[in-house]
Amino acid sequence: MRFPAGILFTLWLIFGIQQTQAVYLNMSDMAFDDQYEGCIGEMENNISSLLAKEKQADPEFSSTWDAAEKRWKTKKPSVPSGFRDEYGIAIMAYSNKTSNLYSNFNSAVRNYSSRDTFHYHSLHFLMTRAVVLLRSSCRWSPRSVYRGMKGIYFEPKEIGVKVRFGQFSSSSTNQKVAEGFGNDTFFTFTSCFGAQIKKYSLYPGEEEVLIPVDEVFTVTNFTKQEGKNRFVLKTTKTRCHYYNCDYLNK
């Protein structure tokens, strides 16, 4: 029996279920993939009050954000034009793997149900804008990256299928670093839209590239080696999103 990837992955994260059944990697249709096309300015105007509201409702979010903001003020790197401090703080907060914010946010993004039940609109917007401003261009050669996972075993329905990760996904340009996060499912892939966040992460040694929710890949190879699942993905140089300006009900 197969289960939807988002639901089963979330159960595994919450309850520590030992995954022995296949989880299909697919287009992650349940994921919140808003790109805010045509409403960036309006979201920017609302972001301060929205962030304050969502922090107040979530102590974990609040404490993790405040710690990242404090660090940003002392370790702020050079930033591209138009890059707000809040974008960098969002990445620092997200990259804090000692906090539950990372897993809570990813779970909420993977399993989006409605505007009113999603409590990370501010973080999602800020992360999305950060990746857009930091990512490379598909006019150049795609970046080769790696992603390792522990305790979950993804499979494709078939070779050649189109897939998305369905969340902001950490990867690394260093294969050894990626292997350190797990080998049960391991991805070797290229990305056009991933953002190199080494300067903005709490862990610059991880050489992290942050993959956006909406980048589409093709599965070009899949093997099982000694109980480990191995993917090779190739970027399609395209993005796909189903939501747009959802918070503003547009």
Automatic annotation (TrEMBL):
It holds the Pfam family ART. Residues 1-22 form the signal peptide. InterPro entries: ADP-ribosyltransferase_ARG, ART. It is an enzyme of class 2 (transferase). The keyword Signal applies. It catalyses: L-arginyl-[protein] + NAD(+) = N(omega)-(ADP-D-ribosyl)-L-arginyl-[protein] + nicotinamide + H(+). The keyword Cytoplasm does not apply. Keywords: Disulfide bond, Glycosyltransferase, NAD, NADP, Nucleotidyltransferase, Signal, Transferase. It comes from the Eukaryota. Its EC number is 2.4.2.31. GO terms for molecular function: NAD+ poly-ADP-ribosyltransferase activity; NAD+-protein-arginine ADP-ribosyltransferase activity; nucleotidyltransferase activity. Belongs to the Arg-specific ADP-ribosyltransferase family. This is NAD(P)(+)--arginine ADP-ribosyltransferase. It comes from Aquarana catesbeiana.
